Amino acid sequence: AQDTASVLFGMDGVEVTEAEREAGGRLTVWARIIFPPVCPGCRTVSGKVRQYVTTRPRDVRACGQDVDFFLVKRRMECASARSESLNRIAKLEARHAYGFRNPANQRRRVRIACTRGTRRKTE
What we know:
With about 120 residues, this protein is of the alpha+beta class. It is about 25% helix and about 30% strand. Strands 1, 2, 3, 4 and 5 form a five-stranded mixed sheet that branches. About 5% of the residues are buried.
């Protein structure tokens, strides 16, 4: 059995949470993504939600009419040890580089600190 979003919009992995017809006859649909969240860097499944973001894709049609479509996405945090250590290093270096006049130099310092060759060895 397919879910409502797959039938209405041809979207797999999206579930309609609410739909209502406005006074002017326009349809408003709220949906959310139901695929398991996977880190794009290390491909591990994450269970830690960082924030929810609502997007509004344009030009969505259903049943031959325009639809106000709101899609709620989860932004996840990676739970792997590698990413946690890189996040810690990046935040620490960003704190040390705070106050640089050129923001590009601040970002460069963080990027250099996170490359493999410059990390300190713990023994």
